[in-house]
Every structure is written in C-alpha cells, then in structure tokens.
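Worked problem 6 (solution included).
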Amino acid sequence: MPTGERDLTQAARALATRLPEPLAPLASIAYNLRWGWTPGGPELFESLAPYRWELSSHNPVRMLQELSAPTLERAAQDGDVLRRAAEIQQTIDADLARPDADAPSVAYFCAEFGVHRSVPVYSGGLGGLAGDHLKEASDRALPLVAVGLMYNQGYFRQRLDASGWQHEYWVPTDPPLLPTALVRDEQERPITVKVPIHGEDVVAQIWRVQVGRVPLFLLDTDRSDNSRLARWICSQLYVADPETRLAQYALLGIGGVRALRVMGIEPDTVHLNEGHAALATLERARPAIEAGRSLDDALAQARDGTVFTTHTPVPAGNDAYPGQQVCDALGGFAREAGVDPWRIVELGRTHQHDVHEPFGVTQFALRTSRAANGVALRHGEVAREMWHALWADRAVEDVPIGHVTNGVHLPSWVGRAMARLFDRHLGEGWARRAADPATWAAVDDIPDEELWAVRNEQRCVLVDFVRDRSTADRLQRGESRDYVEAAARAFDPDVLTIGFARRIATYKRLDLLMKDAERAMALIDGDRPIQLLIAGKAHPRDDAGKALVQGLFSQRGRSQRIGQRIAFLHDYDLAVAARLVRGCDMWLNVPRPPMEASGTSGMKSAVNGGLQLSVLDGWWPEAYDARAVNGWALSGEADPDHAAQDFRHAAELYRTLEEEVVPTFYSGENGGPPHAWLAMVKASIRSIAPRFTAARMLDDYVERMYRNGNGA
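Solution. The predicted structure is:
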C-alpha cells in the first residue's frame, strides 16, 4: 500500500528539474533529514548561499526553490560542492540500504517532533526528545515509524517589547515548502482518514517526512472538505482553546491509528510519548469491539501492545476535561464502536465512579498501557507517588511505573570543533559506540591545550552569534543607543559564559538568578566576570512566566554592566539551543524540586565540554558524582515552604559561583589552560556521555518496554 515513499521521490524529482543537472543530488538529499546529522550536510547547503540559508530557516527545499539561476550555475561548476554532495548522497543511500535490526516494530506517537528547525512542529523539550528518539532509531535501524500532527501555524513565535513583556505571533507553515510529501494513492489522490469529532466526520490527509530511515507521518485537517472549525484543529501546537486541543488529541490518537491502518502498517507496539495520543488505544480496540468483544476485553488486547511514557509532574502538563466535554467530542466514535461514551470517561478518572472527577489523558494512558515509564530515575519515583491512587491497593514502590532516563542524539548536538576532537582521540565511529563507557576512556588523554582550544573556539562562535543577535533584538525593540552598543561590544569570548535556556515557567525559577541583586552584580562586574545568556518562551497564557522575564529586564537600570553581560535571546528554537549548548562553559538549571522530569539540555551541554550547576532533580541525581567532581549540585529536597527554599537555593547558588565555579574557571596561569577546570570537564564527559546518550536510551526502551517489558 502507498506510504508516501514514492511521493517523496516524486517531490525530489520535481525539485531537481529546476536545478542544473550536476546539482540534482541536492534535491534528493533535501528530502531526507539525514543530511542534518551527516558530517558536512548543513555546511554543504549553507555554502551555496549563506544569507538565503538563514532566511529559509535552514530549509533546503525552500532554499533550492528560491536560489537565483546565476547562484545555481556557479554551484554547478564548483567541483567541491559536487564532490561533497556525492559523498552525502552515498552516506544516505548506504544508510537506507541496511536491513532492519532484530527488534519489535514500533509506532511512536507524539504531539510534537523536534526533528529539525525546518519542520516547525515542536515547542521544546518533549519535541526535542522525540526528534532525538527518531534519529537514534534511524541510526540503529530499528523498525520504527512515527505519528504526529502537521500544525499549519506551528508553535508561536516570540517577540519581546522594550519592557521585556512577551508577545506572540504565528507564521504559516506552508507544508509544500517543507521537506514533506503528501501521501497519495495510485490515482494520485491524497490518502485520507475520517475521525468523528464534535459531531463532524473530520477528514485528515497525511504528510510524510523522512528522518533518515524513519518515516514520520503528520496528519492535517486543513482541507476544503472540512468545516472551518475542523480545519482549525491542526492550526497551532498546544492551541489555547481546550476543546480544540481535545480534538487534536482525538485526531492524533484515533486518526493516527487509522492512518497507519490505511497505509498497511501494523506495528507490534504502539509507544505513546506523553498522554496527548492516549486515545490511540481506543481505536486499536475498536475492531475487536465491532467483532463482538466487550470494551474491557478489547482494551485488554490492545493494552498488551501499548506502552506509555509520562513526561511531567506539573499538573498543567496532564490535561483533564469535564466528562460531558469528552462525551461531546467522542460521541460519534462511541456510536461507531458501540460503546457508552461515559465508560470511556471513567477510564480516564483516577476514581472511575466519581461523577465529579474530570477525564485525564494521563490516567487513561496509564490504565490502557502494558507498561509505563518516567523519564529519569527520580521522575519514576515522583510518578509512582503522583499516580498511586490508580493502584491504591499497592504500596507506592509497587506502582507499575518504571523509568527510562532520557538521552540525547550526539551527532545532532556535538559541535563541529568538539566532534573533530573526538574523531582524533576516540577513534572512527565514536558516535556509534557512544553507549560503551570504554569509548570515552581516552578523554583523559586529550591534552589540556587541545581541549581548551576547542572550548575557546565553540565559545567564540557563540559570542559572535550573541553579539549580532542581541544587537538586532535591541534595535528592533527600540532600545537606547547605549544599550544597543553594549551588546555589540561587551560580550567577551574570554569570559566565563553561563547558559540558562528552557521553557519559562515559574517552577523553573528564572528569578533565582537575581534573588540577591548585589551579589549578582558583583559576579557580573568583578575582576573575574561572568556573562549570562538566557532564552526561553513562556506559554501564551502564563502571565506569571512572562513576568519573570520582565522582572529580569527591570534590572537594567541598576548598572550598565547588566546590558553588557546579560542577554536574553528571543524566539528560542532548536538552532539557538544548539549554539548555546555548544558554546556555554556552564549550564544552569534551578527548577523547584521535584518538578523537573528530566531535562536534556544539560546532557547536550555536557557532551560539548560544558559543566553543570544544577538542582539535584530530573536527570542530575543520576549523573552528579561529587567524588569525580564532574559538576556542581544544589540540594534537591522538596519543601512546601517555597520562599524558604528559594532563599536557601539562592544562597547555595551564589556561594558555589563565588567560591568554586569562578575561581576554577580562571585558574589558568600565564594565559595557559585552567587545568583544574578541564579535569572536571574530562570527568564530566567521561561519566555523562555514555549514560545519557540516546543510544543507551534506545537500548533501554527496546529491552524494558518494546520486548514485552513492564517498564521496570
């Protein structure tokens, strides 16, 4: 049955027709995101037209469509371009020719996928993790397909005004300009599925994105045969309207399974990555119900092939809806399947027969999955306590929620300079051997001078970016001339650079950085200064999160040095994240424990030679080793007295920076490398890289979850 592979080939051929014949391989490469983590792939496209590359958001399909004829002709006569294109094409072809690994086939459902900035269907950490999961599955030749939604306006873009208040706007995604192809049948008609939602048979078409060997299928309701309300279902990621968001979850879960079925894809296991796709189990059970099985029996059968990952202990991250709202949305599906919609509602309640309790997508997913896991050891413990009431007859430690700690896809995140260093000292194919601790033993033998040179190079690249980006940001906000010039001249490639980049929410405690303004100013303006780079987005309805950023901006009046040493980089995305984790010397993470599920940005920083200063929450309790001195930790105890906890953590933070971090970074003598700092960097890479790579994560998922595991 058609699955879009032929359509991607046709799209690449159509793009090739507007290119000079020698450049035809570029069209094929552009339609497989494998180029994004192939050495030299991004550089190849950038070399054609650097300015146009930035304007296209690193989207090679759009860029190749927009390049002028003279530019294309020059590239067609450039032997180096042609040679590099041939090499990358050979790499992709060899990758696709490998047989599948011996593992269960998996369909991976998620509301967002951060596979590349050119496919803007992600918001933050969940999407980044999902993207890394797909890339690592491709590298390991796992038989995996992915299912999501094509948001026609993506996630919101961010603009800050001169007061620091966040404003949101949306930009059309325009799928035909993306590296995607509409899945069509033999008569060239789009393949569609219908899902009854809110009394309408909503029609969804399917786009295919190729992520190496892994096909990512994105459902799209923006079709003329749908009502305007139905077309709006696929408008925005995490759309504000609750009813539309519930419709998205019905489309993702029910429609996603139907899309796979119409394409002839029957996976051994369905992996629900967060609760947004929980209703997939209902659709998997529907054929058995229609064949005469009871709902409970049919769900039990579907449950055997379903696993679930929960990602957040934050209540707002676990959507819940009034029972009647769920019945209204799913009434048509319930009639199709011949089940009572209120029985579906009961399955999403912690206490099934409490008529006042809403339907929760997480509860439904936990109740209808064979195995469930949190995303770090501590998060597994928090999740077991959080959802204990679902298994009230068991002790907390016996609640059937295990853990698979997140990991990151190293080829996507390790900077060019650091990758070259690893090539020289760890041997060929180090990324393929990343989960083996023996791969990293040679880190200790890297000369400090070489490691320091690489760290300096990656920091310089970041500082150049920050100077340009911050100057542009301040000009656009209409800031004073002095404040604009401060960004252009003051960020220093030789200064200790600290990064704080994540979703801006109150529990992330951005305000902790300026809790004691005098001590903060002494660090920024001292003889051994620090500079701080901040990025992140607050949810459009999170005024408290927006106020945190505005509070930071209000500090500008205290000293001119704040404008010279602190920058907020607006519109945080995958590209900005990559620059930050590669260039920052230290990654700062101060969430209110135990609210951090995992956190992968610190892992990305660590493999680039950045050190961590983090609360002992999320992944850091598994990684921090005081004996090996591989970073710094703030206490991770939970405390209902938030004000007292913030006071203690702020004091710990400042003391650690003043007495340990700053002196260690600036410990080099006569302009030489800071050997004490670099000893910590080596300990960090050696201890963190093998344990927090996506290769280890995929090993755990295959063995603990996909092979009929129970998540333990």
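Discussion: Residues 448-476 form the longest helix (29 residues).
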